[in-house]
Design a protein that fits this description.
The protein is mainly β and 124 residues long. Helix content is 6%, strand content 41%. The protein has 1 helix and 6 strands. It has one helix spanning 93-100, and strands at 17-29, 32-38, 52-58, 65-76, 81-87, 106-110. It has a 6-stranded antiparallel β-barrel with strand order 1-2-5-4-3-6. A hairpin with a 6-residue loop joins β3 (52-58) and β4. The radius of gyration is 17 Å and the shape is globular. The N and C termini lie far apart (56 Å).
């Protein structure tokens, strides 16, 4: 008897993993910090404006990792560099990580998920 996996069409494909290294961090406003990251394999990223990545960030409370979704602010394929803006609020793991982000720090990102993007002809 042949079994049919009826849920296969609803499963998301596995996300690509991107090892990233911090190459810069600067405050954009008092409550927003932009972190710049590079990755050797980012030359394979098929970026579309509006896409997000799942960042695997350290969880200081439990010693493990937490996953947070962040939109790619800017991507430079030639430099294999991307920028992500973090709103600094509360004591979340992402806020703590962004405040401390320093050149040479490493994280892993997954994605992009690609379901939400900005239409090319949009004028703003």
């Amino acid at each position: 008897m042949i079994q049919i996996d009826r849920m296969a069409a609803f499963r998301r494909p596995p996300l690509t993993r991107w090892p990233l290294t911090v190459v810069g961090a600067q405050d954009v406003t008092p409550r927003m910090r932009r972190v710049s990251l590079v990755g050797e394999t980012l030359d394979r990223l098929e970026y579309r404006p509006g896409q997000d990545l799942v960042l695997c960030l350290p969880d200081d409370d439990g010693g493990g990792q937490v996953r947070r979704h962040y939109t790619i602010r800017r991507f430079d394929a030639a430099e294999t560099r991307l920028d992500i803006d973090f709103v600094l609020h509360g004591g979340s793991p992402a806020t703590r990580w962004a405040r401390r982000a320093a050149i040479g720090d490493q994280i892993v990102a997954e994605g992009p998920r690609g379901r939400t993007t900005v239409r090319e002809p949009a004028d703003w």
